[in-house]
Amino acid sequence: MSSLPTTERSQPKSLTDLFVSLTLLALQGFGGVLAVVQRELVENKRWMTREEFIEEWAVAQIMPGPNVINLSLMLGSRYFGLKGALVALAGMLVVPLALVLLLAVLYAQFAANPAVAGALRGMGAVAAGIIAANGLKLAGALKNNVLGLGLCAAFALSCFVMVALLRWPLAYVLLGLGSVASFVAYRRLLRLPKVQPGAMS
């Protein structure tokens, strides 16, 4: 008899809670929401497990449109259906859009200032570091992946080489490497022992 590790789960209390939470999340995402979305949804809110986050983020990556918008749509739909998806979308876009329009007006006036240009370059470097740190934090969840940590690392390294060093188009890399990874995962899932309905209690 085997037992799976359980993680304390929570969920949005209402559509208002969903809207406010995603608005606050989006407002923290200067330089990229991925740097904070995992911490907020998995560690703080506990609306998703790390494994669910990785799986759904992978789906969000291959869908058209911004990744975090796709993820928010899936999250809202999971808990409140179509209404939740629309509220989640509004939470991610309404207030940040107003701020971006305001910043665009200000940037047009001060873009030529060398201090402003230098500050933006510095923020870009920090944002890249935060995203890299977040990726390393999520790597621990790959231990439970059906591919195993070694094969996951091999696919990740191959993807890095193809995109960052060889400069191959991301769409081709996702289609080719993603198809191979999905096929291997599917074959391994077929070989897993079937769990009997009354086996886990």
Model description:
It is a single chain. The chain is mainly α. It has a domain at 15-112. The chain has helices at 15-27, 34-44, 50-62, 67-110, 114-138, 149-165, 170-191. Helix 1 crosses helix 4 and helix 2 (34-44) crosses helix 5 (114-138). Residues 1-6 have low confidence and may be disordered.
Write a concise synopsis of the structure shown.
With 201 residues, the protein is mainly α. The protein has helices at residues 15-27, 34-44, 50-62, 67-110, 114-138, 149-165, 170-191. It has a domain at 15-112.
Oligomer: single chain
Q: What kind of sheet is the major sheet?
A: none
* Rg of Cα set: 20 Å
> How many helices?
7
Q: What value does the average pLDDT take?
A: 82
Task: List the keywords.
0% strand, mainly alpha, 201 residues
Walk me through the topology.
Blueprint: H1 15-27, H2 34-44, H3 50-62, H4 67-110, H5 114-138, H6 149-165, H7 170-191
Helix pairs in contact: 1-4, 2-5, 3-4, 6-7
